[in-house]
Amino acid sequence: MSEIQIHAIPILPFGMVNAFLLTSTDGAVLVDTGLPDSERKIGKGLSKAGCSLAGLKLIVVTHGHIDHAGSAARIRKLSGAPIVLHEGDLPYCQGRAPLLRPSGPFGRLFKMTGAIERPFAKVEPDILLSADQTLDLSAYGLTGEVLPTPGHTPGSLSVLLADGTVIAGDLAASGILLGGIAFKGWPKPPPFEEDTIEVARSLKLLLSKGAKRFYLGHGGPLDARAIERYAGKLAQAV
Question: Which end of the chain has the lower number of beta carbons within 10 A, N or C?
Answer without folding.
Answer: C
